[in-house]
Specification:
The structure is a homodimer. By secondary structure, chain A is an alpha/beta fold. Chain A has six helices and seven strands, in the order H-E-H-E-H-E-H-E-E-H-E-E-H. Chains A, B: Its EC number is 4.2.1.1.
Chain lengths: ~190, ~190
């Protein structure tokens, strides 16, 4: 079965058991938002105990506080009333394994998927590639405690973020499923 | 109990039953990515039938193909091998209920949460606000079929996206839990 058909089949089952979820309100019932990584191994609803209707979940490569994540967070509190936020990066993140230069070189070489070997990512595709990758900041992560601290700091110091919103910094451990605090980040992120 | 403690408590339970999820690989096992909205009522793992390790999930306000979503999608295929993508917006999205001008005016008036009345969002907070909101494109959604089509079109025509990746366009119905195809988008999004 194709991925598309698998998804549609799974969705039919979900819709059949949908029940009273039709009555959920737009504003998150538990009034918080999580910013985390797109990584396939992470299921924020499961690792943080969310039901439908509870919280906003924002995800991108790395769980970074990009301009777009800030756009989403500002909409989250200003229009939909969230009152606290969580930045959750994770161990063994793909964003640790490359640099801006490597990524733009790989894309300049070809648009096909690179191979990950002992020496790192290597392009094995057929060209043409594109130089457009040189104009993107890939927001790679040298180490998670630093990236969580940087992102909580960026959010807290943004002109559109009220000082009253606490931002908590955590790392999700993909080998145990546990959330581990980054105390320096939570300290920077406390409500004032 | 505070939200933070509730999350940590739920996480303890998840970690206790973590089992063999520690062995999941970084590349998504089912080789696809979903771009969808941060809305609290949406649980993509549930509505599309995903287990941990299956697929990348990218979420922002609206599920829009922002530059940051494109950054994430390019990392998803180039380094981690996804081969097909889904853009899934939804009915009754908060992004339908305001405009760029309204949002920047609300933020200029105060940073507190606005009130939603019969006449739309209204600022009831105490100033000061900030003019920084005028420099952000909020990527609002006038109607979902158009926004899905726009976003699939933007992704398919991006210089870093290989023509071989099909992009499917769907709307999630928050009143039934069902995925509804946007045929024009899927047509634009087919692999070439």
């Amino acid at each position: 079965m194709s991925v598309l058909n698998e998804i549609l089949e799974a969705n039919k089952g979900y819709a059949k058991e949908f029940g009273d979820k039709a009555n959920l309100a737009i504003p998150p019932a538990r009034r918080f938002a999580i910013l985390t990584c797109m990584d396939a191994r992470l299921d924020p609803a499961k690792y943080a105990g969310l039901s439908e209707g509870d919280a906003h979940v924002i995800r991108n490569a790395g769980g970074r506080a990009s301009d777009d994540a800030i756009r989403s967070l500002v909409i989250s509190y200003k229009l939909l009333g969230t009152k606290e936020w969580f930045v959750i990066h994770h161990t063994n993140c793909g964003m640790e394994f490359f640099s801006n230069d490597l990524m733009s070189n790989l894309l300049a070489s070809s648009l096909e998927t690179a191979e990950l070997g002992a020496a790192g990512f290597k392009d094995v595709g057929q060209g043409p590639g594109s130089n457009e990758g040189k104009y993107i900041n890939w927001l790679t992560i040298p180490d998670q405690a630093s990236s969580v601290l940087e992102d909580v700091t960026r959010i807290k110091s943004h002109a559109l973020v009220p000082a009253s919103i606490p931002v908590y910094g955590y790392i999700y451990d993909v080998s145990t499923g546990s959330l581990i605090e980054v105390p320096e980040a939570t300290k920077v992120g406390q409500a004032r």
